[in-house]
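Review this chain:
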Amino acid sequence: MAEKKTHNIVQTESTGAKPQVVQTKPAGNATGYRVGAIVLWLLAIVCEVLAVLYLFGKLEITFLPTLWVLIILIVLDLAFVIIGSQLWKKANHIKPASKKNPTLFWLWNNMGVIVACFAFIPLIILMLTNKDLDKKTKTIAVIAAIVALLIGGAASVDYNPISQEEQAAAVDTIEGNVYWTQFGKVYHTHEDCPHLNNSDTLYTNNVSEAIAAGRTRLCKTCAAKDSVEVDENGFVVAKDDATPVEGGDEVSDTADDGVKSLD
């Protein structure tokens, strides 16, 4: 029998969404994260407006070269977009939108990408059409803005958005604490899951907290072990007569040590 992997278990902070463990301080709430995201996104638009005003000579900055001014404003714009998007995604994991309206669900989960487009595309167009910029400055500034748009858009995408219905199904199905890793994308109901073999440190809390931390899907190995039905994306499927699955239970160690940690 393979030797059981010993993990360093770290109990995470609670967001207040159906907490089952006592925490030292709250991690926040969806409304607070959304307000923070909106404020940062507004600052991103302000940076774009300042860049546009500078291009049209409505804002004078004489102590820096034109290229430096544009690059600084683009970098600040990007920083505000990315940080705002991370806060918005955090809020969506705490309080997700419903899939009953697919269009609204898509818009709600892609607000960061939409803001990124608004924050850079008009500026790119205006720089390309500006006849007063010298060729070198225009080329470098436009490339910088395009790269910022691509980075900001990619960082703003929620590649595994969870819906209100999927979150409710997971909360109703899984009780007790679950486990996840620092860089993993899923949560586990068993500490001895073979996909956790290469992870020394595990984080634990209830399933609501795992989802709030961005681990929106259940490990399919754990799902099979618990006889929990999941869809093709790993989201728990709701069942009217589902019996809650106790997470965090100790089970016999039958995992193959050769399985690598992917989660």
